[in-house]
Amino acid sequence: xxxxxxxxxxxxxxxxxxxxxxxxxxxxxxxxxxxxxxxxxxxxxxxxxxxxxxxxxxxxxxxxxxxxxxxxxxxxxxxxxxxxxxxxxxxxxxxxxxxxxxxxxxxxxxxxxxxxxxxxxxxxxxxxxxxxxxxxxxxxxxxxxxxxxxxxxxxxxxxxxxxxxxxxxxxxxxxxxxx
Length: 179
What we know:
The relative contact order is 0.16. By secondary structure, the chain is α/β, with parallel strands linked by helices. Strands 3-2-1-4-5-7-6 form a seven-stranded mixed beta sheet, with helices on both faces. The chain has helices at about 25-35, 55-65, 75-90, 100-105, 125-135; strands at about 45-50, 70-75, 95, 110-115, 140-150, 160-170, 170-175. The chain has one domain (about 25-175): Vaccinia Virus protein VP39 (Rossmann fold, 3-Layer(aba) Sandwich). It is built from five helices and seven strands. The chain is about 30% helix and about 25% strand. GO terms for molecular function: 16S rRNA (guanine(966)-N(2))-methyltransferase activity.
């Protein structure tokens, strides 16, 4: 994986093969950040990266100037890799080793962008718990956005707060906003 833009543009990051991850493709990530670039000044926002895996999305935000980034994953190896990479690049990424659903139940901190990249084999009920908990616990700022990455074979358009979706190859991003 590589960082698309910003201070660390072009840097390649190689995650250990043993991590149970499926990083967002560079093509999909570039398209997503083109959308976000038109909505936000990256140095003015706070980001919550759920199911953060390798930290791919967190690094991209950090490279573009975001300083308030929290990455949550339940895998110790993933958290360790994110911490090591963030330290090597001098990025301010806070990590939390936790089950994402338990974290969302307890969290009270609001964010501008919440990005969730759960396993693609989640069923629709598991996917639906993400926006349900985010909105029930009021975790988005007023102009905030929840983005859930999933397979193009999963349809989340029936969920409350759904705004729209974008497809890039086999990847799909569903966007959720406060009404």
